[in-house]
Amino acid sequence: MATYITVADVDATLGPAWVAEDKKSRAVMQANAYLTSLNLAGVDMDAIPEEVKQAGAELAKVAAEGKLYQQKTEGSLEAKTVKAGPVTTSKTFASLDSSKIIAQPGDVQFALALLTPWRSSPFAFSVFR
Q: Is residue 25 part of a domain?
């Protein structure tokens, strides 16, 4: 796991009262794990850009609230009925749409927006000849 931010970085960005002292290191560790999982391209690890540090601070704040890796279980109940002559069949199921923008807290969306220059499309790939 790469270290994009430290507790000192988050304290400098958000102030020392962003969360209780005993929760800071775990929140920063979760933020670093999240940033690492994004596979940021072109970030100089010797001189981490301020935008990346700001994004890491936002992610650490969300992690401290217990919302960074929180699963969303909201969805809708859907039913489909098909009738062919005298035969009718019905199917009821739950639909969970995790692609909606509401699936992520606002601070995570802000952090991802700050990281846009270093993120690549998950559908892109490099071709070498």
A: yes
pTM for the predicted model, two decimal places: 0.70
In a domain, 64, yes or no: yes
Residue 67 lies in a domain: yes
Percentage of the chain exceeding pLDDT 70: 84
Whether 56 maps to a domain, the answer reads: yes
- Total number of domains constituting the chain: 1
Tokens 């846009």 belong to 116
Check residue 128 and give its pLDDT: 81
